[in-house]
Amino acid sequence: MANTKSAKKRIRQSEKQRMMNRQDRSKMRTEIKKFRSLLSDQKYDEARSMLPSVYGIIDRTVKKGIIHRNTAARYKARLTQHLNHQTAS
What we know:
- This protein is mainly alpha-helical.
- It has a domain of 48 residues.
- The chain has 3 helices and no strands.
- The mean pLDDT is 95.
């Protein structure tokens, strides 16, 4: 356990940041799930209009350092691919 005053403060700060990161990651995952549910309900127009906002949320999580940029690129590519596949068939 931390002994110094600065170490105790650092523990408090890191815990607070961890909770904020969890919120942001959860928000991103929720938006992705909403997008996928629109696709499964065959609401393609709504899904197409929602895609830029989902991209924005994913990009913000990358900017904050919560997820890696390659992970974000993979998420975005798969979402786009899924939308294009659904609308093509």
